[in-house]
Amino acid sequence: MSRFFRSGGDDSSSESSSDEEELYSGEEDQELDQEQSEEESDEFDNSDEESEDADKDAGGDQKQGAFRFLRDNVASDSEGSDDEVRDKVKSAQVKRLDELETSIKQIENGQKNGDWALISTEFDKLNRQVSKLPAGSRIPKPYIKIIAEIEESVNEALAKAKVTPKKMNATQARALNAVKQKVKKTNKDYQAEIAVYREDKDTYLWSSDEEEEAPQPKVPKAVKFDETAGAEEVADDGFATVGKGGRTLQYTPESIFKHLRGIMETRGKKNTDRLEQIKVMEKLNEIANTPYQKIRVLLTLVSARFDLGTGATNVMPLDHWKAAEKELSQLLTILSESKEYVVLENVEEWDDDEKPPTLQPGEKYIKVAGSIVSYVERLDDELHRSLQSIDPHTSEYIERLQDEGALYNVIFRGLLYYETLKKDETLDVPQDSVNRIVMRRLEHVYFKPAQVVKTFEENCWKSVGEDVDSTTTPRAQALEPANLVNVLCAYLYSNSEGILRARALLCQVYFLALHDEYYKARDMMLMSHLQETVTGFDIQSQILYNRTLVQVGLCAFRKGLIYDAQNTLQEICGSGRQKELLAQGVMMQRYSQVSPEQERLEKQRQLPFHMHINLELLECVYLTCSMLLEIPLLAQTGSSPDVKKRVISKTYRRMLEYHERQIFTGPPENTRDHVMQASKALAAGEWKKSISYIHSIKIWDLMPNTDEIKEMLSKQIQEEGLRTYLFTYAPFYDTLAIETLSSMFELDATKVAAVISKMISHEELAASLDQVTNNVIFRKGVELSRLQSLALALSDKASALIETNERTLEQRTQGTSSAFERQGGRGRGGHRGGQRGGRGGPRGGGNPQRQAGGTQFTGGALGAAVRG
């Protein structure tokens, strides 16, 4: 047995010596350990020494015994020694330092070879290794040295690239730029250490940190929360909440302002964890035990939540929006209960974090810096952006839209708060703030039906109680939607100016038109003269103007005022850009070059789906009105070619021409096809068929009182069918009985007589109405033939062409014309003008301008009858 241990002892000594050699060779690696804190470095050193002693004392003998057994059966002594070296266990710290040194060597090789791709990869790996170091440990000095060297190499490479004309490989150039950005971002955090390295590069790695006293960790105290604030009390057993960096976080009512100050200073900075800040402020809100503390915390907390929705594409998360709405409601509740505290915009912030402000002698209020109206507007804007980003055809949109009720309640309570502030004249409350919040309330009301507005108002008044009333919108008037809109608009008319007043007027006109008050809406729109100044408004106000214009046109259509409806809708629907002008979508044209910035702005302007005006219904109304006006006009110009041709709707004419050019016309499939087929039937005199086509359009079901709309359209088509028939066939009649027309178009005889009388008075029809026999007597004067009319038209066009040519010739030969031409005017042109005047004389006297209906007379019906 003793011989076994003696033989094992020799091998053990050789093995331990090899271990010592390996440890000595790894001393340079372990120099990185000096950058750790003293406590951790001692811990790691002790663990390494214990493991080495264990290997030397006990483990060595045990291994020798095992190797003795293996040597007898399988392998030699040398093989056992190699296995022992290979199976040596390294501590986690040594492994990290080995990986660090490997990455540093790879980066140095990349610097020698100019391989920036390798440097970029290893630099990322190096940063990941450093980030895994224990919290509170020192940064290894080789890491500081290599990042400083990388920065110098990047600067040298960039300077060399500017001087030498030879271009770098594209891959290496990209890698160089990537390393440049990474170094710029990383070295910001280690500027002090890099400066120390650059002061003395030679001795930097060999300088010891043992002389520097490491800060002794403080014994953490137990965190005690105020029981009244609802926080849990932590037992004093040596544990505490530890934040980032190993620092103890103590949340007490006395330290609230200190934490708020730290949060406010870090807001907006890069690498700031906003969610962590919000959690801290939520905890502060729980432990706040005075109204002033709660007001300050809530103001900061709501602002921090709004930071989550910054940027053009970032939408505020739903849970944070709801939390912000509740916290804003809580803030308004505190302000209404603690009336000595007021939140105003034009107040300096309180800088003393040790003690809160107190009421001074002669003062009634403690003023806190903040803006309630800004928070209300931001909450409204975030809901608007959220609805823009959600697919409107999903249940998620409906659920999100339900939050508008809570938002309207916040707007209502905010207005009540500003009204209480305005009652005290000592407070300098800006009128603009009140106007802005009134405008927000109006913008949530003007496009909604009266019943929805009434529901909103009832819920709001229930939430504030029976003893609260408003000076701007009294309870009795606010519960009636029409009165509410009038009161809000009247307030803005008298207290605001410029764009707010114009927007208030547009909102009131929209509301009136939506509820079929056409004449009021039309008169307000015309008297405001906004059509003359709307081009100077901002984009959102121009969109509101377009929406109001369209709503007035739809109201006129519902009232049966076809001409007014078509004339109003012409500006929007005739442009072909309804979707874009109403902010209901972006029209991507084929050859348009839109920058990403413009496209982003267009998307931001889009209205949520629940505010849209149905574009298919709008097109149907516009085309129907155009049909009822254009078909009689086409019949009038067709029967009298010399009547001046005019176009009411170019859009409708193009669609009609395209429809007529089609070789085969199938049954109508969409709204446009139905209107075109109805137009064709009406022009042919088949008014019943036209009515059936118009009634079969399903989009009419979206309008209120659908049956009344269809009945109105039937009467309009009957009357326009009668006018079309008279225009088309008047040249072929001498007399026509009213009863015949009445039975033909199923109209009352008095209605037929009224239509014919109107046409005669407007000189559209050359006829007279015999009330004794109830007949229409058509008059025919000296009528030109078709050939004569075309010859005169050709002559006029030729004369105009000659005048144009001579005018062009005169401009080119100006200064070179003869004295005769200067004295005699235009020479040949003057002679030709005289001839033309002679020829035109008899035409003007003997053949006056032909009137519609295939007859020729001037001076109205009585004048023609006298001359006859």
Automatic annotation (TrEMBL):
GO MF terms listed in the record are: RNA binding; translation initiation factor activity; translation initiation factor binding
Q: What are the BP-aspect GO terms? A: formation of cytoplasmic translation initiation complex
Domain PCI spans what residues? 609-783
What superkingdom does the record give?
Eukaryota
Can you say what this protein is called? Eukaryotic translation initiation factor 3 subunit C
Q: Which SMART domains match?
A: PINT (SM00088)
Family designation = Belongs to the eIF-3 subunit C family.
Gene that encodes it:
NIP1
The record, for Pfam families, names: eIF-3c_N (PF05470), EIF3CL_C (PF26569), PCI (PF01399)
**Function description:** Component of the eukaryotic translation initiation factor 3 (eIF-3) complex, which is involved in protein synthesis of a specialized repertoire of mRNAs and, together with other initiation factors, stimulates binding of mRNA and methionyl-tRNAi to the 40S ribosome. The eIF-3 complex specifically targets and initiates translation of a subset of mRNAs involved in cell proliferation.
Its annotated compartments are: Cytoplasm
Q: Tell me which GO cellular component terms the UniProt record holds.
A: eukaryotic 43S preinitiation complex; eukaryotic 48S preinitiation complex; eukaryotic translation initiation factor 3 complex, eIF3e; eukaryotic translation initiation factor 3 complex, eIF3m
Q: Where is this region: Disordered?
A: 1-90, 806-868
**Compositionally biased tracts (Gly residues):** 835-847
Q: Which residues form a coiled coil?
A: 173-200
**According to the UniProt entry, which residue ranges have a biased composition of type Polar residues?**
811-820
Q: Which Gene3D superfamilies match?
A: Winged helix-like DNA-binding domain superfamily/Winged helix DNA-binding domain (1.10.10.10)
Q: Which UniProt keywords apply?
A: Coiled coil, Cytoplasm, Initiation factor, Protein biosynthesis
HAMAP family named among the record's database cross-references: eIF3c
Composition skew (Acidic residues), residue ranges: 17-55
